[in-house]
Write a structure and sequence with these properties.
Blueprint: E1 2-4, E2 12-17, H1 26-32, E3 67-71, H2 94-107, E4 115-121, H3 123-138, E5 143-149, H4 164-175, H5 186-191, H6 203-208, E6 215-219, H7 223-230, H8 238-241, H9 246-264, H10 267-270, E7 275-279, H11 290-293, E8 297-298, E9 301-302, H12 303-311, E10 323-324
Parallel strand pairs: 2-3, 2-4, 4-5, 6-7, 7-10
Antiparallel strand pairs: 1-3, 8-9
Length: about 350
């Protein structure tokens, strides 16, 4: 991991989990182990923080002075893999890696933290959702919150009706032995005897069972989800949907409606102390960068400001008071209904 100490003697921390897709079988994971997401041999010695990890108070006024940690993503399956068997000398033990990272940070002061934010983007955000209750329970006397960025992936067929993407993830969940890598996940604890516990590696399943305070940052038209799950209307996606026809706009709005149904049809969505910022920007992880963090807004509130309001609020605040919901794409040009998405990718 990369670590930057607090700018003053405080005990506030933000831990950010790196994303980067996944691998579904032995051959894929072995190939991945030779690259940046599977080997530390070519990591940079120094890394600059952006967005919620930025040290610039103008960019990140709330969290710039925290102890800031960027955790590299090594296991290829959301820090949940926990296999005893090895393949070509390769171990898949992301959960154990995460535990050791936390133990190391404990010795550096995390154990006595007064504030702790867990965040991440993409696979790192999904990992945040999966592991947030484990980390909350690990630091019971700490003000704690989870901030997943671009990590809510709908369970949805593609435009042809195929569910191959979901089938691949189900196969990968068993291959990585994820049920051995999320022991404090409430979804897993609830479903392990009566349902399919490996489904808890899906963001909407784990989200529905969360105990931790959470502020979800996502686009309902997330670029990764549209490219890899929906797979339709790809020709019109660039430039914030400017080349889409009315049928394509209808498809995309229906996708957004389905996204909202999945996330809002849970107790977590309305639980006191929670919140969400859901835009229509065609982007993936843009909020983890400086520009997106301070540009994308909903009804006049920039995402970084919305996050600050949530973090500094009372945990008894209604979720509605910290929830920002998306607009619908327009049939006429410009189709993008949120002008602050301009230039965001």
């Amino acid at each position: 991991f990369y670590y930057s100490p607090a700018s003053s003697h405080n005990s506030s921390w933000v831990i950010f989990l790196e994303g980067g897709g996944y691998c579904i079988d032995e051959e894929e994971c072995f190939a991945r182990s030779k690259k940046d997401l599977g080997s530390s041999s070519k990591w940079e010695s120094v890394r600059s923080g952006t967005g919620i990890l930025s040290a610039d108070p103008k960019i990140n006024p709330t969290f710039h002075g925290f102890h800031r940690v960027f955790v590299k993503y090594c296991d290829g399956y959301f820090y949940t893999s926990n296999r005893d068997q090895k393949y070509k000398g390769l171990y898949l033990r992301g959960y154990r890696n995460l535990k050791v990272v936390l133990q190391t940070l404990d010795a550096m002061g995390l154990r006595s933290a007064k504030e702790l934010v867990l965040s991440g983007c993409s696979a790192g955000a999904l990992s945040t959702i999966i592991h947030t209750d484990y980390i909350k329970n690990r630091y019971p006397h700490t003000k704690y919150g989870a901030v997943p960025i671009s990590g809510f992936f709908p369970i949805h067929a593609d435009y042809t009706g195929s569910t191959d993407f979901l089938k691949a993830l189900m196969f990968a969940s068993k291959f990585h032995n994820v049920t051995g890598g999320m022991p404090a996940n409430n979804c897993f604890l609830t479903r392990q005897k009566t349902h399919t516990p490996s489904l808890c590696a899906f963001s909407n399943f784990s989200y529905a069972y969360l105990d931790s305070p959470i502020f979800v940052i996502n686009s309902v038209l997330d670029r990764y989800s549209l490219d890899n799950i929906w797979k339709g209307d790809s020709s019109c996606l660039p430039h914030q949907f400017s080349n889409c026809n009315q049928n394509q706009i209808s498809d995309l709005n229906e996708w957004g409606i389905d996204f909202m149904h999945e996330i809002t049809n849970t107790a977590t969505w309305v639980k006191k102390g929670n919140g969400a910022f859901l835009s229509t920007c065609l982007e993936h992880c843009a909020v983890s960068n400086d520009v997106g963090f301070n540009q994308i807004s909903i009804n006049g509130t920039i995402v970084s400001v919305a996050l600050t309001k949530w973090w500094q609020s009372n945990s008894t605040d209604s979720a509605k008071s910290h929830t920002y919901t998306p607009c619908y794409l327009r049939n006429s040009d410009p189709h993008q209904c949120n002008p602050t998405c301009k230039g965001i990718y």
